[in-house]
Structure to design on (814 residues):
């Protein structure tokens, strides 16, 4: 006979107010196998846990049921306490009588009855639990960073400085991300490139960091400590070892029709190009869609001119396979498609996005830093900024969340204009001004108080182009007046959104995203940089809108988690894995087809059949790969495979107990 | 609750206290039930949850056993397709759904007594709604007599 101890928690009044805990204890005492039952105010407190340990010892208990809050909350707490009292931690079960009972049922009688049923189910299950011992797995001492923006760079540098190898996989030809495109950064007005470029160089030069630019993560398998990743290195058509970065090819390339991605389409680039002056690595790529030689076989000028013979037209995409212990996702963000906002006339050349603005004010940008209208190159006299374009917008075309950074960069943009050209009038239409960062409010007020930027609380209804002007029709909700401003340029603070390929990446990584396709952290408050998948961490705006300081902070936090993980010599794995009963297994291998982790293979065994030796094929589970979903158990027709911790018998016992 | 809006079954069955067994996957639906709890959303106490790692862990046997033991309704709840913590587990659940429905109907249990639904960890509200909905269906049908009476009496 089992000697089960049942501990019913009050959770203060959280449980005790709507569940008669005394009655639960009395009923528990009658359940088969229960040798001891008691209630306590706070089981999870140190006193509660100590009491549990003492009772286990005194009454020689061999199994424990705690009727308390969700196992997702304190299962580990109670397992640890039981272990300290000498019981295998997997001989503990939780009956969730708080989240599933006291908090959702007002009627005390019904709640108590249900609490008893849930406790009965836990007792029934624990009776059948067996001791489980987690296996140990090795950790590959190397991290993968997906995304080479400031988030990825910061994480990589921190991990590399701690002495571990790091690979950065970046889709575009250079690291640097969106931050590299910015002109100045708020609230200090540091030059973005000046603070970012040294970090990019550090990352490239660091002996522990390997950059895979113009590369994509193709496939990921494995598990924490042992991820197996295929990386596609796209053909660059330029030999990275031979190229000296002299740029003769990029200057002489006759194809100049492609829009520069880095310049937000405000400038053209060649078919062979380096995305921007400080690009890392400083090696061009050839755009297959634009290159005359690759399309028609003619041209090949760059190949002829290259002094170091670095151009190789026969280059091919290459897939490399690497092993990693941990992964940081730092894939960044996009901005929304403004073509759905017809009223703002984004198709007009003088209506630009904030990122385009960054390029126009940048000294290295398409206008060499002169603030000029894209349509005719003239200096504008009136500029209107519109905030929350698509942010805090619950309609189909917009995003219901606040994009967080636009209030600040709009203040920055208006200030940058007024600084250089005090005679330009700057207007900002806003819904609310939100500036809750360090020194942020002071910064925004400076735009108003020192530079005289006119802030108008209200939205713009429509913009009508009239001759060279853009007539901005809006409302000042403070005075109730309708306004018409004859602007020369309009800057739209477009909402940020998750990267368009976030869903694709989520599937590869097996992590989750929220309704806006931003990656979801394991816990919004307490585990903000981890995902629900062990060994995969998040950094930067791929998790939600973030400014640079927040991104850097989260990136370092993710790095700290990775360092903590890589520091371990062994990891223990989940012992709730499946196991094959070889005497029942028919060798059909249907389970191998079902398993999402390829955790099941087969082996040949020899069995003794009435003195005759016969060979037989049976399924074979790799415990390190098995995640414990239990799908194989249902697929198996003879019922030969079962999931430890959630066995068929255990679950059936729960069903019986609940339907008692 | 508006259980008797278009039927009087509830009133006729004053004594009828349905029992619903809900198999919830640990990562989404069980967490959704937790969220319903932390958000203090009320739903009837007739719903009793059994935690499974993934909705694909639920064997047809478990469902049949619940009906056999007198459950009036059974729900399997998992993560939304595409969001499975085990990447594809719930696709298998979805595939098994029609099989289980056919089987329960074949043995004389109305198909409305069995449901598969997707409830994410963020959908405390949906958890309560799904549970209320099946309960409402079960109230309309009355007690699951067929299999209950078929139990072997000793
Ligand atoms: S499905 Fe069952 S019988 Fe078939 S190989 Fe797998 S464990 Fe063996
Ligand atoms: S429990 Fe899931 S992960 Fe483990 S072997 Fe079975 S199907 Fe694969």
């Amino acid at each position: 006979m089992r000697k089960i101890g049942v501990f019913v928690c009050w959770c203060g009044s959280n449980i005790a107010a709507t569940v008669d805990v005394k009655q639960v204890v009395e009923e528990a005492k009658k359940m088969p196998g229960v040798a001891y039952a008691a209630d306590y105010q706070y089981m999870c407190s140190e006193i509660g846990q100590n009491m549990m340990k003492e009772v286990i010892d005194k009454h020689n208990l061999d199994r424990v049921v705690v009727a308390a809050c969700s196992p997702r909350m304190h299962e580990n707490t109670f397992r640890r306490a039981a272990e300290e009292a000498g019981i295998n931690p997997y001989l503990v079960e939780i009956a969730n009588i708080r989240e599933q009972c006291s908090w959702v049922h007002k009627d005390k009688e019904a709640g108590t009855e249900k609490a008893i049923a849930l406790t009965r189910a836990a007792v029934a299950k624990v009776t059948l639990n067996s001791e489980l011992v987690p296996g140990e797995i090795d950790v590959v001492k190397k991290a993968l960073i997906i995304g080479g923006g400031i988030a990825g760079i910061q994480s990589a540098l921190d991990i590399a400085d701690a002495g571990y190898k790091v690979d950065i996989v970046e889709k575009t030809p250079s690291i640097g991300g969106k931050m590299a495109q910015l002109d100045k950064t708020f609230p200090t007005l540091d030059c973005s490139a000046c603070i970012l470029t040294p970090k990019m160089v550090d990352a490239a030069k660091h002996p522990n960091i390997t950059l895979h630019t113009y590369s994509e993560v193709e496939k990921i398998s494995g598990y924490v400590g042992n991820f197996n990743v295929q990386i596609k290195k796209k053909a660059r058509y330029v030999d990275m070892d031979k190229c000296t970065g002299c740029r003769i090819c990029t200057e002489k390339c006759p194809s100049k029709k492609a829009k520069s991605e880095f310049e937000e389409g405000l400038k053209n680039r060649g078919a062979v190009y380096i995305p921007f002056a400080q690009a890392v690595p400083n090696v061009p790529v050839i755009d297959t869609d634009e290159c005359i030689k690759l399309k028609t076989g003619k041209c090949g000028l760059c190949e002829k001119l290259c002094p170091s013979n670095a151009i190789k037209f026969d280059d091919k995409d290459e897939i490399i396979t690497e092993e990693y212990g941990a992964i940081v996702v730092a894939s960044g963000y996009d901005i929304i498609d403004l073509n759905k906002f017809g009223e703002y006339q984004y198709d007009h050349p003088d209506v630009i996005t904030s990122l385009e603005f960054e390029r126009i004010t940048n000294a290295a940008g398409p206008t060499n830093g002169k603030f000029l209208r894209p349509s005719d190159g003239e200096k504008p006299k009136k500029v209107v900024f519109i905030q929350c374009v698509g942010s805090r917008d619950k309609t189909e075309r917009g995003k219901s969340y606040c994009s967080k950074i636009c209030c600040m960069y709009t203040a920055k943009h208006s200030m940058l204009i007024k600084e250089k050209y005090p005679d330009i009038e700057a207007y900002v239409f806003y819904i609310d001004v939100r500036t809750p960062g360090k020194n942020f409010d002071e910064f925004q007020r400076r735009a108003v108080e020192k530079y005289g930027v006119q802030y108008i609380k209200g939205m713009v209804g429509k913009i009508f182009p009239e001759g060279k002007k853009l007539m901005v029709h809006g409302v000042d909700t403070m005075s109730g007046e309708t306004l018409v401003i004859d602007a020369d340029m309009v800057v739209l603070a477009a909402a940020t959104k998750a990267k368009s390929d976030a869903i694709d990446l989520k599937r590869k990584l097996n992590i989750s995203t929220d309704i806006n396709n931003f990656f979801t952290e394991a816990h919004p408050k307490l585990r903000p940089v981890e995902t629900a998948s062990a060994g995969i961490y998040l950094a930067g705006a791929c998790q939600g809108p973030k400014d640079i300081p927040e991104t850097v902070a989260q990136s370092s936090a993710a790095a700290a988690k990775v360092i903590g993980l890589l520091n371990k010599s062994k990891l223990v794995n989940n012992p709730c894995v499946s196991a094959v009963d070889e005497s029942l297994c028919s060798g059909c291998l249907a389970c191998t087809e079902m398993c999402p982790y390829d955790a099941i293979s087969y082996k040949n065994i020899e069995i003794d059949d009435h003195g005759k030796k016969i060979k037989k094929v049976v399924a074979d589970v790799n415990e390190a790969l098995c995640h414990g979903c239990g799908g194989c158990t249902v697929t198996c027709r003879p019922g030969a495979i079962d999931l430890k911790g959630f066995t068929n018998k255990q679950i059936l016992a729960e069903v019986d107990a609940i339907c008692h | 609750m508006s259980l008797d809006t278009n039927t009087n079954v509830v009133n006729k069955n004053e004594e009828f206290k349905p029992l619903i067994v809900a198999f919830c996957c640990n990562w989404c639906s069980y967490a959704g039930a937790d969220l319903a709890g932390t958000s203090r959303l009320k739903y009837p106490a007739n719903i009793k949850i059994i935690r499974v790692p993934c909705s694909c862990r639920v064997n047809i046997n478990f469902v049949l056993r619940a009906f056999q033991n007198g459950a009036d309704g059974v729900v399997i709840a998992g993560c939304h397709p595409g969001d499975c913590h085990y990447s594809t587990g719930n696709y298998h659940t979805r595939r098994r759904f029609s099989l289980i429905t056919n089987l329960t109907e074949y043995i004389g249990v109305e198909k409305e007594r069995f449901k598969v639904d997707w409830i994410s960890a963020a959908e405390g509200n949906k958890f309560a709604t799904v549970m209320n909905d099946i309960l409402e269906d079960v109230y309309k049908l009355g007690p699951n007599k067929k299999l209950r009476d078929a139990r072997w009496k000793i």
